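Listing S7. Sequence submitted for prediction.
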Amino acid sequence: MARTAFLLLAIAYAAAATSSQTAGEALFRDCEFKAAAHVFESALRDEPDNARFHFWLGNSYARMAEVASPCSAPRNARKARVHLEAAVRLDPKNGDFRNELFEFYVDSPEWFDGGLDHAAQMLEWFGPDDGGPGTRSRKLAESRSDHRGAGWGYRKGILRISAALGYAAPIR
């Protein structure tokens, strides 16, 4: 009897985890990023070491940062970084997780310092490429080019001043 109850509980738990993941991914595909984030946050309360939940939560926050106001975008970007890094830390062999984190670092250097350096370190994980169009090393080089010089320094300064005035979170 106890064994049957245990099996039923295990099946119910697995079904709940699967339904949370499926529901959250469906919301994400429907561009309901905030609702998807809530689903994955709730799922992570039950399974804090679930790399897939961290991955999808990080993606949800990253998309929210892309479409958010300048006041909330930095906060969402920092949350995305935390969860994408957690997904890679929990499942370092998952290529999708590593690739998404790399892309996030390359595409989001304005939200925190060191993102491009982290992306450069990740290139070692992926191995060498030919540096051609669309390769990771080319994407990193292009992002570094886009995020340097006087114009970038001016934009970064504006972000820091806005943060100091309470309009946006500080760059870290």
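Caption to Listing S7: primary sequence and predicted structure tokens for the chain studied. The chain has a mean pLDDT of 74. Residues 2-164 form a domain with the Serine Threonine Protein Phosphatase 5, Tetratricopeptide repeat fold (CATH 1.25.40.10).
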